[in-house]
Structure formats: structure tokens, C-alpha cells
Amino acid sequence: MIEGAIDILATRYAYALMFVLMGIGMYMMIANENLVKKLIGVNLFQTAIFLFFVAVAYVEGGKAPIVPADSSPGELAMASPLPHVIVLTAIVVGIALTAVGLALIVRIYAEYGTLREDTLREVRADE
Amino acid sequence: MSRLAELLPALLVAAPILLATVPIVLGLRFERTGWSVAAVTTTALFAATAYLAAAVYETGRVVHVLGNWGEPQGIGIELVADEFSVLIALLVTLTAAGVLAYMRVGGPRGNTFYAGYLLLIGGLLGLSLTGDVFNMFVFLEIVGLATYAMIASGDGPESAVAALKYLILGTVGASMYLIGVGFLFMATGALNMQVLGEVIPAVVEEGGSDLTLLRAAFAFIFVGFALKVAQWPLHTWQPDAYQHAPDGVTPVIAALVSTVSAYALGRVMYNVFGPEFLTATPYLTEIVVTVGCVSVLAGSTLAVIQRDVKRMFAYSSVSQFGLVVAAYGLVTQTAFVGAVIHLIGHGVMKAGLFIAAGVIALGYGARTVNEYAGLAKNRPVAAASTGILLIALIGIPPSAGFIGKWYIAVGAVEAELWPVAAVIFLSTMLTLAYAARLLEKMYFTPPTPVESPHPPGRVAADGGEPEAGVETARDGGSLLEGDSIRRGSPDAVSFGMVAILVAIAVAAVLLGFAGGAFFEWLEPFTEEVFTE
Any idea which fold A2-59+77-126 has? Predict the structure, then answer.
């Protein structure tokens, strides 16, 4: 059991790291009172997912998925290109989200004069 | 199958997204073109969807493979119009066009707002038509982004906070879904729904580590959608978002955004994973049914104790979507049809109720349950429509709310899950509890001459000119006769707003007779899903 776990950690450490990173992002999102840092937490969370996808695509001894014109395609060992494309798209989506989120934070700061969630709660409770 | 019908799925998604730029471009020269562009586009989209629905009725599934990547199947992204997705697309386009009748006078205004509106409609249509699990993630996020922007277009500072809360939680939901897609891809190597649906039964039979991956995929996807659909305890964004969004935006969001997410959950559960996987995995259906049932009870209980009407309707949405999710977990044909009917019925009813809330806030200055006192005497049409919609929401026949609940209850009995049938009965009682509070205030409590805490009238955003009628009503002080209370300004309510409200109330009743029609319409789809 323990040996199996160690074996998985030794060969699949990338996955474990990704999920640790995901946890850090999520913790930051929940526990941090600063709205900007919350958004950074969201970004970290998403980045962990992107890295997870890249790790999924890895093939032992594989090269970059560019097929030379003359070789026979069956013999080539290369990383799967599809997850890379997915990650590219997801990065674009993530940037759009960050932009909208930051715009909202700018507006909240302009209206309430604070970036901290606890202060924000007090200000809103007073109104 | 005609060539045009084959092109339509792609056009339905691309057209609104491309046309979203038009209001901004025209806005450089003309001041108020956004509404007209949106009205023309949504009406055309509705006509196109109706044509597509006719084509689906005649020939069955219509598939459009983007970029001509047809062979081998599963390489290109497919847009699929079948009985299920066309039904949702019809709801989206019809609601989008209908709510514009409210927005014409009720706002929000500004050309950029309508650009966002068209983006939202394009995203929703994409989400309903896509046949690819990763493409679904992209459309989930497009819908999310447009929704955050629309909620934040409210005047008050609260709307920005509500939008940010939704943004953070919504992103987590979509990201959870993306992780699930990653596991699905690891287990099967496919992203196309059709291909996945064919591969997964084999994986279930084979077992091993691939099956473990599939189960993890389902867990992540379900949690992600539970967040997007606002299931208890992940519903916390929804009341804030619905309450603080502008009155014209809430009907669209409440009727469509969570509805289409719930549709996507149904699509993934039944088309991708399939009933076989759902029933073969231990505790899966139990967990789905429990999440749904707890949401039904928690949502309706929280709705009963709300003071703000929009917030009350928002909690009511939590409970109604709970019914849909519980019905998905029953895995019977009847319950599935019930879930689809309830999705559409709930969309129609909530669009109507939130339009009613907007009309009453504009014309009567009432936003809390207590302020609704005496509404029936002063605004008989709005009160009667709200009353009909509330009765439909409770599920008194003939109404859209009744047939959905009926089919789900029959499905629960078929699956011999008596607790679910009991929860449906209980939810009806709880819905009655909060609906009766409003009905009692409107019809049986005399109006109290208190100054409304919510001053009527709108803030003219983005340089829009306030209507002349509003000004005269406020300055001239047109006193109403008898014991009518002068609150709000009835002139702020246009004919279009009342007309669309009455039309939706009538539709909610008429849908009550359409149960059999829905069942027949969905039969080709459900037969294929359940008899494999």
C-alpha cells in the first residue's frame, strides 16, 4: 500500500504537485481577505489545471508534435497536441476572466474605498 | 436535409457573437441603436431556431461539423441540433426576444449593454448546441463572462460586489468542469460527445483504472455544474446576483443562464456518461438525488423567510433546479422528460415573475413583500399576472409548473424512490407558503400609506434621456383617485412591459396542456438514450 503510494509519487509526481498547487489557489481564494489576492488565487487554481492538462499530454520520450513531411507517422513518439490546444484556449478564457474580475474590483474600490473583504462587509452592513 | 438547416447551428452561434460588435460600431455615430439591433437579431434567431426545429422534426438530428473535419468522427467540433437541444434553443431565443419588450423602456440602456446581451445569447445558444465537452467549457465561460458584465451593469455599488462573487464562484465551477473533462480525456482519449457515449459503456464493462478515472471525471463535472446551477450549499452567489442585477437583466439571467447550465448537466449525464454508467456506479444516483432534494427543501425554506421579492424568487429558483437535478438522478424516461419540461416551464415562469417584479418596482415602487400590500387594487393587471404565475409556480393544474412536477413525481414512483415523491409534495407545500404570502399581501391587505423606501424612477445611465412621462408624473404629482396610494409612477410602465408580462402568464397556463406534446417530441431522443 505504502510502497504503491511511493511508486505513484515517484512516477506521477507532476499530478500530485498540480493538485497541491490547486489547493493553494483555492485556499488563497477562500482565506485571503484582499480581493485582488483572491483573484490571484483563482488564477493559480486555473494555472494548476492548465499544467495538469500539459502533464496528461506527456509521452515518455515523446517529441514536440510536429510531423516531418517525409517520415511514416506510425513510428513517431510525440506528445499529444490536443491538450496543448485546449490549454491555449483555456488560457485565453482565463485572461478574459481576470480582466473582467479586475474591472469589477476597480469599481468596488471606487465605490467603497477598500479592497479588503472584512472592511467591505462592515461598510455594507452600515448602509 | 436541406443545406440551410445544416448551416443553421453554426450561424445561430456565430451570428449573435459577430453582431454584438454592431451596437458598439453604430454607437460611434448614433446614440440609441443597441436595442434595435438586439431586437432584430433575437427575432431573426428565433425564426432560424424555429426553422431548425422543423428540420429536426422532419429528419432527426442535424449535425454541423465545424471546419469540415468530418472524418474520422470526433476530430472536429460538432454542433448538434436534436430534439433536446432545439427545445432549449427555442426557449433561449424566445425569452431573449421577449424580455427586450421590457428593456425598451425599463432599461438598462447603452449600446455596450446590448453588445453584452448579444454575446450572452450567442454563448447560451452555443452551450445548447455544442456536441463537444471541451467546447462546452468555452461556452460556459462565455456565458459566465457576459453574465458577470450584465449583473455589474446595475447602478448600485452592490451589483459589482454581487458580480465579483459570482465571477469567483462561477470560475471555480467551470474549472471543476474542466478538470472533469481532463479526466474524461485521460480515460477515453475523446472529447466528442457522440464518441464518448459509445466508448464509455465499454470502459464500464472493462473496469480497471479507466473506470476510476471516469468516476473522478463525473464527480468533478457534477460539482462544477452544481455550482453553476446553484444547488445547495453552492447556491450562495445566486440570490445576490439576481437581487442586485438591474430589473431588466434579472429575467434573462434567471430564465436562461442556470437553465442552460442544467440542460448541459443533463446532456453530459445522459449523452456522455449514459444511464448505464449512472446506475452501475455505486451511490452515484443516490448522491445526485440527495443533492437535488436537499436543494428543494433548503431553497424553498430560505425563500419563505425572505423580505425582498427578487431575493425570494432567487431562492425559489434554487429549489426548482433542485427538482430538476433530483429528476436527473432518478434515471427513468418519465423523470427525464419531467426534468426537461420543468426546465422550460421554470424558465418561462421565472422570466415572467422577474418581469413582474420589475414592472411593479417601476410602477408601484414596491420591492419587499410588505410593500406589495394593496397591489391588486392599484395595479390589477400586474397583480393578476403575478398571481397566475405564482399559482403556476406552486404547480396547480393546468400550468407549466404542474406538468413538470407531475412527470418527475411519476418518475420517482416508477423508480420506487418514495422519499423523492414525498419531497416533491413537500416542496409544493413550501412553494405555496411563500407564494401565498405574496398573494395575501396583493389581494387581501389594504395598502399602507408609508413612503416607499425605494424611490421610483430610474437613473438615466449612459446619457439615455428619461422619458417625458416620468418627469411629469413626479413633478406634477398626478394624484390617483380613492384610496389608491401614490407610489412609483405608473407612466414609467410601458404598454410593451405589461403586454409581455400578460403574454408570459398566458403561456405559463397554456404550457400546462402541452405535457403530452413534450413527451412525444422528446421521444426519439429518450428512446435512443434509454434503450441502449
Answer: Helix Hairpins (1.10.287)
